[in-house]
Design brief:
Number of helices: 11
Strand content: 5-15%
Oligomer: single chain
Strand order of the largest sheet: 3-4-2-5
Number of strands: 8
C-alpha cells in the first residue's frame, strides 16, 4: 500500500485526524477574504466581455507573425480614424494568423479597416474575413446564462433536500456553490481574460463538479450521524469531522486527476494558441475545480455542522457528551492518583532498603580492602525464637585455635 493509501486508511479508521470542523472560523475567514477580493476585482475592473457580449466587428487575416505584429496592426487600424473605433484588440493565433476586434462600425468604416489590415498583411482585401456581431445577441446569451444558473440552483436545492431529507444540507450546498462561482468570476476579472460563451459553459460545468464532491461528503456525514441523538459518544461536529477525514483523500485524488488535463489545456490555450475558446473554457474549469474541492472539504461540511448544532436535540447531545468527557477525565485522574502514590511509596522503600544494604556492606568492603577477615563484632547477629541475639559462627580461619 502507498504512503497516501496508508494515511487514507488511518484517517478512515480515525487513528489520525485533522480537526476541519474545529478550525471552521479560520476557513470561514479565509473564504470571506477571497470573496471580498473577488468582488473588489469584479466591481473595480469589471469583466472583459468578449465580442460576443459587447458586439463589434471581427477580422481575420493570414500573416506571418513577428514580434511587432500586434503593434503594427494596431497602428494600421487606428490610422483609419473610423468613427467609434475605440481601441482595437489585436491578437495572434499560432504563427500564421492575426485577429482584430473593434467596436460596432458603419459599413463604410468596416471596408476601410479591412483594407488597412490587408495592406499591412500584404494580401488582397478579399482574403481578409470580417464578421459583425450585434450586442443584442450577446445580451441574449447573458440572459439565458443567468436564467440557467438560477434554474440550476433551484433544482439543486430541491434534489439535495429530497435526497438527504434535510433543508440545512441544501442551504450549505447552495452557499458553497455561490462561493465557488463568486471566486471564479472574480479571478476572471482580476486576470483580464475575455468572458465568452465558452466561459459560461465552464462556469456551469464547475457547478456540477463542486456539487458532486459536496454530496459525497454529505452522504458520509449522514452515515456517521444516523441515530446520533440516542447516544452520548460524539457530537454532530465530531461525526462531521470524522466524515471529512474519511473522504479527504478521495477528494484530493479526484481533484488532482481532474486538474492535470485541464491545466494542460490551459497552458496550450494560453501559451500556444494565445486566444480562442480553449483558453476561456480551461481557466473557468481550472479555477472552479480547485475552489470546488476546497469548499466541499472546508466550507460546506462546516456550514452544515453550524446549522445542525443549533437544533435543540443537538444542543442536548452536546451537553451529554461534554458531561461524559468530564466524568471520564475525573475517573482517569482518580485512578492515576493512587497509582502515583503507590509508585512513590515503592520508590521510597527501595531507596531505604538500598541504604540499609549499603550500611551492612560497609564493614565488609573495609575488610576486603585491608585483607583481614571480618571480626565477630562486625558480623550480623542471628535472632533466636526468644528474640535474643546470638553471635554467629567464627570464620573458618579462626576455628580450632
Amino acid at each position: 500500500m502507498s504512503k497516501l493509501g496508508q494515511i487514507g486508511a488511518k484517517l478512515h479508521r480515525g487513528d489520525v485526524s485533522y480537526d476541519f470542523i474545529g478550525h471552521r472560523r479560520f476557513w470561514f475567514s479565509l473564504s470571506a477574504i477571497l470573496v471580498i477580493i473577488s468582488l473588489a476585482g469584479l466591481f473595480a475592473r469589471g469583466l472583459a466581455l468578449g465580442i460576443e457580449f459587447r458586439g463589434g466587428v471581427e477580422y481575420d487575416a493570414a500573416v506571418k507573425v513577428t514580434d511587432s505584429t500586434v503593434d503594427d496592426f494596431t497602428a494600421a487600424v487606428k490610422a483609419t480614424n473610423a468613427k467609434g473605433l475605440g481601441d482595437p484588440v489585436v491578437t495572434t493565433i499560432n504563427n500564421n494568423k492575426v485577429r482584430v476586434q473593434t467596436k460596432p462600425l458603419a459599413q463604410a468604416d468596416v471596408g476601410n479597416v479591412r483594407a488597412a489590415i490587408a495592406k499591412e498583411a500584404g494580401i488582397p482585401a478579399d482574403q481578409v474575413t470580417s464578421q459583425q456581431i450585434g450586442a443584442s445577441w450577446g445580451k441574449q446569451i447573458a440572459d439565458k446564462a443567468i436564467l440557467a444558473l438560477i434554474v440550476f440552483l433551484v433544482a439543486v436545492f430541491a434534489v439535495i433536500w429530497l435526497y438527504f431529507r434535510e433543508a440545512k444540507a441544501s442551504m450549505a450546498a447552495i452557499i458553497a456553490l455561490i462561493h465557488d462561482v463568486t471566486i471564479t468570476v472574480g479571478v476572471y476579472a482580476l486576470v483580464g481574460f475575455d468572458v465568452t460563451p465558452a466561459t459560461v459553459i465552464g462556469v456551469l460545468t464547475i457547478l456540477g463538479y463542486s456539487l458532486y464532491d459536496t454530496v459525497v461528503v454529505f452522504d458520509k456525514i449522514r452515515e456517521n450521524t444516523r441515530g446520533i441523538t440516542g447516544s452520548n459518544r460524539m457530537t454532530y461536529s465530531d461525526a462531521t469531522n470524522l466524515a471529512v477525514n474519511q473522504t479527504v483523500v478521495r477528494s484530493i485524488n479526484t481533484t488532482i486527476t481532474a486538474l492535470l488535463p485541464v491545466g494542460a489545456i490551459l497552458v496550450v490555450g494560453t501559451v500556444v494558441l494565445g486566444t480562442g475558446p480553449l483558453k476561456d473554457l480551461s481557466l473557468a474549469l481550472f479555477v472552479g475545480i480547485a475552489v470546488g474541492a476546497y469548499s466541499s472539504i472546508f466550507i460546506a461540511p462546516s456550514l452544515l455542522a453550524v446549522f445542525k448544532e443549533r437544533e435543540p436535540g443537538m444542543k442536548a447531545l452536546n451537553k451529554r457528551v461534554t458531561a461524559k468527557k468530564a466524568q471520564t477525565a475525573a475517573a482517569a485522574a482518580a485512578t492515576a492518583a493512587p497509582v502515583a502514590v503507590a509508585t512513590a511509596g515503592a520508590g521510597a522503600a527501595a531507596r531505604s532498603a538500598g541504604q540499609d544494604r549499603a550500611v551492612q556492606d560497609t564493614p565488609r568492603k573495609a575488610d576486603r580492602a585491608t585483607g583481614t577477615a571480618p571480626t565477630p563484632s562486625t558480623r550480623p547477629m542471628k535472632a533466636t525464637a526468644a528474640g535474643r541475639p546470638q553471635p554467629t559462627r567464627k570464620p573458618r580461619s579462626k576455628r580450632g585455635k
